[in-house]
Design a protein that fits this description.
The protein is α/β, with parallel strands linked by helices. It is built from ten helices and five strands; from the N terminus they run E-H-E-H-E-H-E-H-E-H-H-H-H-H-H. Helix 3 links the parallel strand 3 and strand 4. Helix 2 runs parallel beside helix 3 (about 65-75) and helix 4 runs parallel beside helix 10.
Length: about 230
Amino acid sequence: MQQANPISVIIADDHKLFRSGIISLFDDVTDILIIDEAKNGVELIEKYFSKRPDLIVVDISMPELNGVDAFRRIKLKDREVKALFLTMFEGEEYIYQTLKVGGKGLLGKNVVKGELIYAIKTIYNGEKYFGKNYTTNKLKELEKKYRMMATDDIENLIDLTIKEKRILEYLSTGKTSNEIATLVGLSKKSIDYYRSKIMLKLDIRTLPELISFAIKFTNSKKIFDK
């Protein structure tokens, strides 16, 4: 049975061309309606409470306020908010991060139209969707795995300074070196230097690996003093 009203959605992403591309996918979809768009987390919060959509489709990494932090702030006032996150970096670490903050789904930004529509409808109906390969049981196993990893590998952060841990925390939310520099009162060059030191100490060779590591430990809630 078709629902009486279309599912109302706000799209949040900092790239206008990407937003326009996503919106155009729904031109011929009658049961999903894109009611607004936002270019960052701050704008998303404002438009969410102004328009009250059924669901938000939000990029994890955005300037000013990233998608995860924007979702957290919305959830403080509306515990029923439903979010499908999009990301450039695909991996179990990002699924774990999404689950920890209460998001209902995560897809790569290369998702095809049919799967995006299916994910929106699934999440609207109160279920989770992280791709066809992630069943309910597999998601539970994934959460258990990352909780255990965070506990077992906690010693890896012993050599990091407080400032390096704070930078690692910001990296886990998708913030750029420029954004972190503003937040901690340092130059971008200094942040890049600290990031290199962190990678050296942790024997990490690539930025995606570093972000994955940061997400795992930030979400354990046993490392950072928030």
